[in-house]
Amino acid sequence: MTESNLPALRPATTLSINFPPKNEHITDSEADKTRKLVKDNGEYTNEGKAYINKKALPHLLGTDTPGVNRIYNDLENDEKIELGDKKLVSIPAVHKIMSERIQEPRDTLQKERIRDAEACLTALRDAPELDKYREAEESRNRNEQSLLKGKKIAAENITACQLTGEPLASNAHAHHIERRADKPRMSRDLDNVIVINPEAHEEVHRNRAESPQELQDLCKTKEWNNPVKNDSSKAKDSDKEE
């Protein structure tokens, strides 16, 4: 994410994090360090998304700074936030990395440390305050769906079906490029919505064009306009950390 579209971030020290009991296979000092790192380096948004500062990852992942840099550089842009010198990684992204490392032939104690850290990050993710934010976001998503078509038409002065180019029908539909069921956080994002005539909408679903790539393929076959923008979240950073 670029600084122009960064969400507001808040420190995890303001949350009620219910950390799990310490892992019996690791020392108290290791467990205490993990909990302190998660508490002091965790951050969250008012949408309920949780992150951890990159500087905490060497301990949490059982690796060194060069190892973390390689991991960080391989992340998709929507899995991390950069704000000046501050670099944050989403909790789901870290969980995925932890799961992979636990399944590798590593030292037993190292895997137990990662398991303990994994449980602590889960506690951050599941903080009750964050669940409240997520519930509020879901409510906004549900209540504003009927307004999306009008907002999109007004924002872009749309007069034609965004797929076929035919004059826009009075009963045109708002279609989500990324399905609401798959990416609910994008359900109110007007860049993820196109306004299309009912016949075109039926054709999209008849052909199961349920993903951006499938929709692009259908548009190519039907010689329709391609409404799918390049997904910058899939592009890796050009400046890699060493």
Topology:
Blueprint: E1 10-11, H1 28-41, E2 42-44, E3 50-53, H2 57-61, H3 65-73, E4 80-83, E5 86-90, H4 91-102, H5 108-125, H6 128-144, H7 148-156, E6 173-176, E7 193-196, H8 198-206, H9 212-222
Antiparallel strand pairs: 1-2, 2-3, 3-5, 4-5, 6-7
Q: In a nutshell, what does this entry contain?
A:
The chain has 242 residues and is of the alpha+beta class. It is built from nine helices and seven strands, in the order βαββααββααααββαα.
Task: Explain the overall architecture.
With 242 residues, the protein is an alpha+beta fold. It is built from 9 helices and 7 strands; from the N terminus they run E-H-E-E-H-H-E-E-H-H-H-H-E-E-H-H. A 5-stranded antiparallel sheet has the order 1-2-3-5-4. A two-stranded antiparallel sheet has the order 6-7. Helix 1 packs parallel to helix 5 and helix 4 packs antiparallel against helix 5. It is elongated and about 70 Å long. It starts with 9 loop residues before the first strand and ends in a 20-residue tail after the last helix. Mean pLDDT is 93; it is low at 232-239.
Distance between the termini: 20 Å
Average of pLDDT: 93
Reported for the largest beta sheet, the result is: 5 strands, antiparallel
How do the SSEs run, as a string of H and E?
EHEEHHEEHHHHEEHH
**Number of DSSP helical runs:** 9
Q: In percent, how helical is the residue content?
A: 40-55%
**Beta-strand percent range:** 5-15%
